[in-house]
Amino acid sequence: MGGDEAPKARRRNDPASRARAAELGLDSVDRLPGWFLGRIGRHLAGHGHRMLGWDDLLEGDLPAGATLLSWRGMSGAVVAARRGHDVISCPGNYAYLDYRQSDLDTEPIPQSVVLTSTAPTPSSPCPRSFLPRKPAM
Q1: Is 59 helix (H, G, I), strand (E, B) or coil?
Q2: For residue 69, what are the β-bridge partners?
């Protein structure tokens, strides 16, 4: 699940979206995706499944039991893990195989940055800020 492709301005300027948010008692139309994803998460859980979603879901209320795919860096992974969610780290600047591998004109349609097979990768999928701290002696 995700939603970063859905323009927030459309929702904010849409009378039907504003009316639906008010009907649901939401303080903003920006809370509509979280409300919707919560419904989907409960539906999936009721059928023995779990939601898997991109880290833009953290902009709302990530449904209980959801697993987060952290693609915009490691900060989303840390936030989700601290909230008790399972996390799959897949930072786009290291892990996206559809990015172009060079600046050559022969590359397919350019997708974001150049990511070569020799590009440096993080030494650990778990950021240092999340690792348990050793007790002071």
Answers
A1: helix
A2: 54, 88
